[in-house]
Specification:
- The protein contains 14 helices and 2 strands.
- The chain is mainly α and 367 residues long.
- Strands 1-2 form a two-stranded antiparallel sheet.
- Helix 3 crosses helix 8 and helix 3 crosses helix 12.
- The two termini are 36 Å apart.
């Protein structure tokens, strides 16, 4: 276990995560969306009829696998601890989760998908990286002012089983009943076989838990502590996917890739929201799901907020549209968010700044 905490170990864990990602894409998941947490939560939200966007509805086993994988490995390593912050922190984290997924769906992908898109040569993803870094930088300013949403306290371990257990029950219902819906076209209809998805998600949960992989946390540590360790597994993941794309002839620098858009300002601001939210909440979308599996009730609140936010993104037409080139029949689509999405981004930024000010103990506000 000590080796896995070394820089070489973290690099190997990142490579392994990249290999699992490649396996999921090669088995049928969307090519540059193989393990996108925000996209998959959006699909699951649609499968449960929380939104009616017919092309993004499928109960993704990968998310259940990440939670269960993190849960099991944390028990095995003795890191399973159920913690909860009392007061209004749960509500603030729930709201923060909503903003985080709204930002991701304006960009059209979370920070995980951003890296996968970068590894394929998607220039709009590199532009999104600028926004992510700026958002983390803003969050770091609050951290330097002693930002906190309260002290975490350990509670009964049984409480940590509820969230993984509910997800497993929902997963079983998704394959044994007709309660849930599945897309017949669009991204929701593109997926790997059930068992491969579940096993792949579980492996990602295990690897991400061991490596502490966090896309916002890596920048936070760089800005806040000048520490590069958390970037190492992400670089390992990027490198193996990058090499695979070159070997398969799938890499080329393009203004935008599949299911993306080239609207620069909204790519930057969308990921700015993800970076700021991830810093204030203690982790990117992937990290939140992993932490929810290993006993963080606070992260459960964030993930639940992400499910609600994903539904809001489509019910209120906040999510961006993917750009598309003109064909014989349909005209070209510029892509990007409409006016609802544009307004929502600024509202999300304001909300997150308020959470940041609430969490700075300078005002001695008890949360």
């Amino acid at each position: 276990m000590d080796f896995l905490n070394s820089r070489k170990g973290l690099f190997i864990l990142g490579i392994a995560t990249g290999l699992v990602t490649i396996m999921l894409a090669a088995s049928g998941n969307p090519k540059n969306m193989a393990i996108c947490v925000a996209c998959f939560i959006r699909d699951m939200s649609g499968a449960m009829r929380w939104h009616n966007a017919a092309v993004v509805q499928y109960f993704r086993p990968e998310i259940v696998g990440i939670v269960v994988g993190s849960f099991l490995i944390s028990i095995f390593t003795g890191e399973y601890k159920v913690k909860f912050t009392s007061g209004s922190a749960f509500v603030l984290r729930f709201i923060g989760g909503i903003t985080m997924v709204l930002g991701a769906l304006v960009f059209l992908g979370c920070s995980t998908r951003m890296v996968l898109r970068m590894a394929a040569g998607d220039i709009s993803a590199y532009i999104g990286l600028i926004g992510l870094a700026l958002g983390v930088g803003t969050g770091a300013l609050f951290l330097k002012k002693d930002y906190s949403l309260g002290e975490k306290k350990e509670i009964t371990k049984a409480a940590g089983v509820i969230f993984p257990g509910v997800l497993v029950i929902l997963l079983i219902l998704s394959v044994t009943t007709t309660f849930f819906v599945t897309s017949t076209k669009g991204p929701g209809s593109i997926h790997a076989p059930f068992m491969i998805s579940l096993i792949g998600g579980s492996l990602v949960g295990i690897l991400a838990q061991r490596s502490r992989m966090c896309f916002t946390g890596s920048f936070r540590n760089l800005f806040f502590m000048k520490n590069f360790d958390m970037i190492i597994p992400i670089f390992g993941m990027f490198l193996v996917v990058f090499i695979y794309n070159i070997a398969k002839g799938q890499f080329s620098f393009v203004p935008y890739g599949p299911i993306a858009h080239p609207q620069t300002i909204w790519n930057i601001l969308g990921m700015y929201v993800v970076g700021l939210a991830g810093t204030l909440l203690g982790g990117c979308p992937l990290r939140q799901v992993v932490l929810a599996g290993q006993g963080s009730i606070d992260s459960v609140g964030t993930v639940l907020g992400m499910f609600v936010g994903a539904a809001m993104a489509h019910n209120f037409k906040i999510a961006a549209a993917a750009a598309a080139k003109a064909t014989e029949k349909p005209p070209a689509v510029a892509g990007g968010p409409g006016i609802n999405g544009q307004i929502a981004i600024f509202v999300c930024i304001i909300i997150l700044l308020i959470i940041g000010f609430i969490g700075t103990r300078k005002g001695k506000i008890n949360v």
